[in-house]
Amino acid sequence: MIFHPQELAGAFVIELQRFEDNRGFFARTWDPEAFASHGLNPRLAQCSVAYNRIAGTVRGMHWQDAPHEEAKLVRVTAGAIFDVIIDLRPSSPTYTKWLGVELAAGDGRMLYVPEGFAHGYITLADGTEVTYGISAAYAPEAARGVRWDDPAFGVRWPREVVCISDRDRTYPDFTP
Known about the structure:
By secondary structure, this protein is mainly beta. 6% of the residues lie in helices and 43% in strands.
């Protein structure tokens, strides 16, 4: 795995290091020692998958409050997304800043989302499947969110939203 730090402290785009032969390729998608050596949370508590039927589907922006914060490793296994993270750590120099990264099946890239970040995405293709490695078990009482189009952040989404849950569409405006 090749780790590329991003402009938001603690966020990384991680490229798969492919070992290819006549059968195709093999690559590690998880290595706790490599994660720890880059200062990333090496704990893997659960893996999840989200299937999205149509392009223009938004999921997010979600996080879990203390003491249930979670880091995520996001990878697309079918289709493509514009993946967005927002730094919600008040003590961070990049507090309330956002980052958007396109991830697509077969591109060999993953996004590491640190604890304290909101995370969400919009699908860029029909039939998009997203897998997550998550550092903490889901705790419904700690689940939080901000609206995908909250003006406090100014996220520039690359396409029109055509499908979103009522919950994600109606989060209140962010207040620090």
